[in-house]
Amino acid sequence: MARRAVVLMVMALSAACGGSDPGESMAAEATAAILITEVVAAPGTDGTAFVYMNIANEGTDLDQLIGASIPACAATELHEWATAGGSADMRAVEDGIFIPAQATVRLGPDALHIMCTGGAETWAEGDEVPISLDFRDAGIIDAVAVVGSPRG
Asked: How many CB atoms lie within 10 A of CB 122?
């Protein structure tokens, strides 16, 4: 199946980069540059879905995914799989997902992911689902998840 990679880049400019010359502010150093790729929504059971993606921080500073919103879902949370006492369990990530500078964090099966509860019952393979990602520094980045099976 051909997959459409969604690539979005947000450059957050330093507040101190103002100047009288318009070209001067364009040359300001970027403090956060986030790229979102391979966004997939994998339906689960009972109207749930899991959203996976790559989040690359090409900036010079650490950023943090602090929330996500999917209009079609009753609730959206950042989640992780945790193993304790020999059993795996899913739990909410309360402090967000840290994205180090010059690094890529993969949200995937059996790892960090975005959980959608209530609303994914009607999603079909190939549907496009809008999602808003809220980063501490980069702000809101809108993306589109394609409904399907995640790649390894």
From this structure: 9
Please, what sign has the CA dihedral across residues 133, 150, 6, 26? positive
Max mean pLDDT among 6-10, 31-35, 63-67, 146-150 falls in 63-67
Round to whole Å and give the CA distance between 41 and 135. Answer: 20
Q: What is the pLDDT of residues 12-59, one digit of tens each?
A: 323 333 333 333 333 334 445 999 999 999 999 889 999 999 999 999
pTM for the model stands at 0.78
For the chain, report the end-to-end CA distance as a whole number of angstroms. Answer: 14
45's CB contacts (< 8 A; 6+ apart) are: none
